[in-house]
Amino acid sequence: MDEARELLIELGTEELPPAALARLRDALAEGLTTRLRDAGLEPGEPEAFATPRRLAVRFPAVPGRQPDQLQERRGPAVAAAFDDQGQPTRAAQGFASSCGVEVDQLEREDTGKGEYLIFRRMQPGQALGELLPDMLDGALEHLPTPKRMRWGESTTEFVRPVHWLVVLHGPDVLPLTVLEQGAGRHTRGHRFHHPAPLELAGPGDYAERLRAEGRVEPSFEARRERILEQVHATARELGGRALVDPDMLDEVTALVEWPVALGGSFDRRFLEVPQEALISTMQDNQKYFPVVDEAGRLQPHFIVVSNIESRDPEAVRDGNERVLRPRFADAEFFWEQDRKHRLEERLDELGAVVFEKRLGTLRDKSQRLEALMQRLAGLMDLDAQQAARAARLCKCDLLTRMVFEFTELQGTMGRYYALHDREDEAVADAIEQHYWPRQSGSELPDGPLAQALALADRLDTLVGIVAIGKQPSGTKDPFALRRAALGLVRILVERELPLTLTPLLTAAAEPIRERVAEADQAVDPVREYIVERLRGYLLEQGHAHETIEAVGAVGPDQPLDFARRVRAVSQFRERPEAEALAAANKRIHNLLRKAGDEAAGTLEPDTLVADEERQLHQGLLAVRPAVDAAVADGDYVRALGELAGLRERVDRFFDGVMVMAEDAAERRNRLALLRELRQAFETVADIGRLATG
Questions:
Q1: CB–CB of 89/83 below 8 Å?
Q2: Are 453 and 394 in contact (CB under 8 A)?
Q3: For the whole model, what pTM was predicted?
């Protein structure tokens, strides 16, 4: 049968890597869809499924056979295909032979460039069952699998051992073999609830049969939503609300086929331990959802998502509580032991921890941060003593037992220990927040001291690592410089800190110079690297590439100022005058570039000849003070608004004045006038780069 029918492909495996499950599902669906379409078999939009033990794709309507295709090849020109006696030449015979026919079976066609021999043949389309094995092999081969493995005596490789294969086209099984598994119509349900095979009548009953009989929710999204609903409902029953980390929710979804949420409890005494440590244990180690009250305080409860609907849920609950107890006891022990030593007592121990061989130890880094914080204290009006104290202590918690066990709590535990040591609260906050933002889009440091320390830490790392020649390349970024640069950009822009890059980077290079003589040479490349991250950040904010380039052309050295200019130019582009002024600026740029040294003269207003050029000069004189005042205030929207008022005068100038006049004095004077106009616009951006023509 050649009519289009539903197509179901399911690959059953041992438990797939949870972190990769959604990517594997999407890649399989995309790979099969692309291959079917390339073969002329339009399948419609696929529905993809994924559980820990299966990947599946269902297409709504796939033809049973390719359409017949007309094959056409052009051979030699007729003039070269036959000799003077009309006999076929070797060229004609060779072409006919390659097509599998005699010369007299070839057609002739006038192509407009001469008459050529043509071979045409109708190629019958192949059946879906003939094409699908190679398609499926190819799609599976290109899955983004973390690591492939073999099993048993087989030489076949896949991310996990394969146990069954379903390939149904309508009600019919397509008899093919992939990964040494013959295709059939039997899927499998839940490993415990329904271990027996489930026979499928066709692709249409796949999902419902698995749900109703197999006790498997095959849809990743439906399973995720079901988990979310159960977790929130269970949290309400426990008198709180669940903390749901999206990444952990995805991982739990990839670990279960039939989710059942259960609430559990732990001893209240553990709440004396910082809740971040307990939450980290529950989320990272056990994949439990913590329960908090409306104020965000941890409650002595958790929620586990089981992969079975147990007849004895109390036993499941008790087992999970028993597993959690020793982990919390460890955290409690670390908390008690760490507080026996002040953070400051760990300073000398930092000297034994290498940050980077050429850049020294963490103690060396702390000393560099202390020096840099003194510079930032002056720029940001900080208490110099607090600035030095925060820099001195900020890395000390890395040597605590708690952070050794839970590395993600660096900074967080430092704050707790600093407060226990009765350090100033601003210092404690800076210790925690100097790691912020921990990742793209996450929270920024709050207070000025924390912001300064976060900047200092990133500046030192960026300059130091680039100075020793270990800047990122391709996909490798072992020191997370991209994240450091983007974090620095976000702090400066979103916290509205008017700090200039070059002096900051130069200050960061000074203490590094004691170890790396060429540290100063890193200033310019690091500045460019940060500006590139700033450009990317502004693109993600929705600003156009040419807008960012227009601002970048005038080289502002302050990220906050750069961002404000970009926002102003984006608003300017919405004005009706923008396009004409951009085109005029582009024209001015081209005229000045071609004129070379002749455009470097001084404007002599009294010798302006034409009324249009005098009007333009007067208009420029009138708006320039307001433009300069607005630029000085950082109000670039107002500055561009003032300049936009020159649009009519600029238009009249170009309509009525020949810039490159024959008279040399007139020509130089007009070029000087245009140079001053261009300079006025370039106090904000190179507006000519916005021109579309």
A1: yes
A2: yes
A3: 0.82
